[in-house]
Write a structure and sequence with these properties.
heterodimer, A: 116 residues, mainly beta, 11 strands, 0% helix, B: 115 residues, 4-stranded antiparallel sheet
Amino acid sequence: QQQVKQSPQSLIVQKGGISIINCAYENTAFDYFPWYQQFPGKGPALLIAIRPDVSEKKEGRFTISFNKSAKQFSLHIMDSQPGDSATYFCAASNSAGGTSYGKLTFGQGTILTVHP
Amino acid sequence: DAGVIQSPRHEVTEMGQEVTLRCKPISGHDYLFWYRQTMMRGLELLIYFNNNVPIDDSGMPEDRFSAKMPNASFSTLKIQPSEPRDSAVYFCASSFRVGTNQPQHFGDGTRLSIL
């Protein structure tokens, strides 16, 4: 019930195209859904995050869409650029406190390659 | 402000040796997390601390692994004795709790190879 399932494992997109990565979760107590971006040799870095009281959040070319009833959320990268090539992780956590606070459960990651 | 600092960046050692990984969190952050990343298992949370106190160590794989946080600016993850299956990238992350859901800031990791 703590799993977050991410797909696809890898994605190849042409420059200017739209990249879409999907995640699904089971634990209805999750109330915070961040996306992290990781470049080779670096640690993951927070890209964008959403809480379930909104269905969409946009920051520049990056948008999270959230479907609470389906327990799914996705990352859309508009006008994808070669510099976006990285591994993307979705994650989820429960902010109810106690030992579960801040404990992120990560998806398996998606390797995105954007061809010039 | 400096980010999370991990050392060493790379460690190669022989099976059976003791390995110590080090982490300096961002100043003022009161949560510290240790993760392990492998191709097979992805990013796994090993243990996390709040105000230097271990809160949840349920992800620590076995007794060979131990973690300490003697003060707010330093933490160690120790493996003794090390085994080839411990080879992975180990990340430390820290966060600051103001309200809820503060982002975790990751270091650049320690790439550990056990021969």
